[in-house]
């Protein structure tokens, strides 16, 4: 590898094994001109590779794999492949390796995206541009609508997840996961507090099942890449994608939308005071789709409940050294904020 290559721990990604596999997969031969670790999610490993003038992004599970990590990576790759040619902004899939013996885990290669994470550092020309921030917010809603219009059965994803009974399962499924954390070593059961009041409300006011579609499952600002015009370039981190009600993704976006009145909002490196408000996002969604929004309050509460329990899982893993301690603590605090936000929504008395 050239002088510009950044050192990568071979126990996480053996670059020589990747080079060999790419040759076997018909992706060319020769050394990498550059390898660099990318930021992004707090769990999975992302590398940017360059060989023969072409760039690739490699994604694999975290060093401390979970039992379903390889299957999750394969599912992500299947979804990205199925989205090819759709109106959904996404990284293009290049190839997937399902053989964990190559580098110790399944992985896939995707096309790099020309865009930036709006939650990260921004140049002054963007961070102080009201127009850019407004376009950003509305473009993300447009991407969400495009995703909601994908029919899984028509793109080879009919077997993704368990769509039958999805809505009815949500409360018990995530409550069961929280209970399961109590069996983990070093974790104090009840650390997150009771969620019974939220679960009871969700069960009581559960809306009618209007069918399922392809959902991202973790749809928030930090999982977006946008260009310098503010247009959504790609939705990333598809590890929670499945078939479910598309209003869950909208609920996630609203539940985590940054703002002074939302302690559960995603963290921003620089303030973005001109982002559209939650009401403006909803109005834009309503103008662009025929999907009814009468139940969106319920889905916002579900999003808070579900995401809080998912984040608590990161805290649980951090207690046993399977995730960084500071990452786990931050996830735990965000989980508590999400449950507080859910209770705030309940107090508003809307259903």
From TrEMBL:
Family annotation (SUPFAM superfamilies): Protein kinase-like (PK-like) (SSF56112)
A Pfam match: APH
Superkingdom of the source species: Bacteria
CDD domains named among the record's database cross-references: ACAD10_11_N-like (cd05154)
Keywords of this entry: Kinase, Transferase
Gene3D superfamilies from the UniProt entry: 3.90.1200.10, Phosphorylase Kinase, domain 1 (3.30.200.20)
GO molecular function: kinase activity
Name of the protein this chain belongs to: Predicted kinase, aminoglycoside phosphotransferase (APT) family
Organism of origin: Prauserella marina
Classification lineage: Bacteria, Bacillati, Actinomycetota, Actinomycetes, Pseudonocardiales
